[in-house]
Amino acid sequence: MSLTHTEVPSTYPPSPEFAKNANATAELYREAEEDRLAFWAKQANRLSWETPFDEVLDWSQAPFAKWFVGGKLNVAYNCVDRHVEAGNGDRVAIRWEGEPVGESRSLTYSDLLAEVSRAANALTGLGVVAGDRVAIYMPMIPEAIVAMLACARLGAMHSVVFAGYSAPALGARIDDAKAKLVITTDGQYRRGKAVSLKEAVDEAVKASSSVEHVLVVRRTGIDVSWTDGRDLWWHDIVGNASPTHTPEAFDAEQPLFLLYTSGTTGAPKGIVHTSGGYLTQSSYTHFNVFDVKPETDVYWCTADIGWITGHTYIVYGPLSNGVTQVLYEGTPSSPDEHRHFEVIEKHGVTIYYTAPTLIRTFMKWGREIPDAHDLSSLRLLGTVGENINPEAWRWYADAIGANRTPIVDTWWQTETGSAMISPLPGVTATKPGSAMTPLPGISARVVDDHGNLVEPSPELGEHASGYLVLDKPWPSMLRGIWGDPERYKETYWSRFAEQGWYFAGDGARYDLDGNIWLLGRVDDVMNVSGHRISTAEVESALVGHSGVAEAAVVGATDDTTGQAIVAFVILMTHHADTPREQMIDELRAEVAREISPIARPREIHVVPELPKTRSGKIMRRLLRDVAEGRELGDTSTLLDPSVFEAIRASK
Ligand code: WTA
């Protein structure tokens, strides 16, 4: 054993007190093992169904699944009305903290019911019917959640687009979905300053043939330009609508939402999720992985609603379980680095779920910041989005959790809909850095190219790695890619078609105890601060600039953001005289404009040539070696091995 193993514990068993009161017990694994489908039927029945389902899973059209066949339910009813009907209408659903300090609001479940009903009536008045798509482009304000639930209530699909995306990225998503309505705000706060948001919508829908209306929440009061007939104020339309609305039950497979995510090509994929299965697994995992006690907990997930984590663990999971949660509009450093800890202290947050990149940022800011606050209300911590390095895990446990709280490292994806691999608090003895084992009801394995299990052995140690696959369908699995069934089959189901397994795109390995350690993406998708960005998307933004002839983009390891974007570009000859620095600044701005500031490359290198194979494929693996300053790997398949001298020289 190495020194580090003797200095710090390698496993963290749950405390007896936590285990005694935990929602989850080891019994869950046994139950799921014994009869997986009966187990999922039981979890589905935690929800309220208007018509019970008569079949748990229909996998006859694999890879297109149907879960809870024949069942009917209303997702919004399950997230709102039933808590009010159960007598919990006065429980606070959302404790909202605005970005500007001192601005806050509380909505009880009764308030939420009235707001969602008003919005559903208003949307109906605008002609939104079941099956329609509604784009939502909003900051983190309660109306964003209300808008999502109003769509769900009507059986319309929401397509939430992260408000940090630029107008072209928003426009592409609106067009692909043929959204009828866009819901947005006049502006949003960024470090105390109001900046426009509606402007991007105006630009995005300029050429749209599908958008009939833009519904605008007044958030900041800044001036906006207005298109009469198309643009409507939320406070007029929703504010004046009736606060009562009778929900209709929809089929378990009624599409619930579309969420665009990056794939290995430039075009984002519209991931489709449906109702019964998605809500079942979101609710079940939220209850057991976060151990929520709706009567006493104050839960806070710091994700943005523009990502799947916000959908599942801000909207559908917590609300289906009737919990009280904090919703925070701003960034962790606004107005200063104390903000998150002030929010935890003010609201007595008990469960805190965030991303490793933020934990590493907290580490950099220094421990004196959390130390200045009373964080003793916390009883459970979670992470998601990328693998957490053991050092950051231990810091999180110690500086934030005072070594009292379990940590749940949850592995999942936009496509999986909810958590898949994670410890169960109160049951699992966790190891820092490992997401541990598949949750009860979920099945995964780590395999080689041929589908053989990659098993560690005492002789070989734990270093054999392979691909993570999901070898059995699960309730909250994606049902497809919007408008592109072939791409769905090709992307996820072709690699292990013979076995019928889902290819996750992540590398992984087992340790000697059979726990899973995630190793990052094995495809051309980068993970920057937990945001999925495809190399192809950034390359296409770069070559969109008139000065760029060719571009290759790689994700290089970064201490804070996990990966950072490093681009190599070949300039057009007519730009040979443009000063390098100016060109690089322009290119970085171009990527921010085309996609989002989150996709802005950390480094851009102007190079004379790119390393290519004889078939013309760019060898990103070698560029990653260069970006990370490593020895070059195998260059034998390169068309011209000497290109690296030139690339190195220009770095
Ligand atoms: C990565 C976010 C290691 C992984 C919910 C996955 C993780 C991608 C973890 C999905 C984790 C997410 N440990 N890696 N706990 N959680 N990932 O779609 O590479 O934004 O494939 O969903 O994030 O990102 P997405």
Automatic annotation (TrEMBL):
Annotated Mg(2+) binding sites: V543, H545, V548
Binding site for ATP: D409, T410, W411, W412, Q413, T414, D506, R521, R532
Reaction(s) the record says it catalyses: acetate + ATP + CoA = acetyl-CoA + AMP + diphosphate
Record carries keyword Metal-binding: yes
Chain positions recorded as CoA binding sites: R190, R191, G192, K193, T309, S529
Record-level GO BP terms: acetyl-CoA biosynthetic process from acetate
Residues annotated with N6-acetyllysine modification: K617
Domain of life: Bacteria
GO annotation, cellular component aspect: cytosol
Domain AMP-dependent synthetase/ligase: from-to ranges: 86-482
Domain AMP-binding enzyme C-terminal: 537-617
Co-factor(s): Mg(2+)
Pfam families given in the database record: ACAS_N, AMP-binding, AMP-binding_C
Assigned keywords, A-Z: Acetylation, ATP-binding, Ligase, Magnesium, Metal-binding, Nucleotide-binding
Enzyme Commission number(s): 6.2.1.1
Molecular-function annotations in GO: acetate-CoA ligase activity; AMP binding; ATP binding; metal ion binding
Family, similarity comment: Belongs to the ATP-dependent AMP-binding enzyme family.
NCBIfam families from the UniProt entry: Ac_CoA_lig_AcsA (TIGR02188), PRK00174.1 (NF001208)
Record function comment: Catalyzes the conversion of acetate into acetyl-CoA (AcCoA), an essential intermediate at the junction of anabolic and catabolic pathways. AcsA undergoes a two-step reaction. In the first half reaction, AcsA combines acetate with ATP to form acetyl-adenylate (AcAMP) intermediate. In the second half reaction, it can then transfer the acetyl group from AcAMP to the sulfhydryl group of CoA, forming the product AcCoA.
Name of this protein: Acetyl-coenzyme A synthetase
Gene: acs
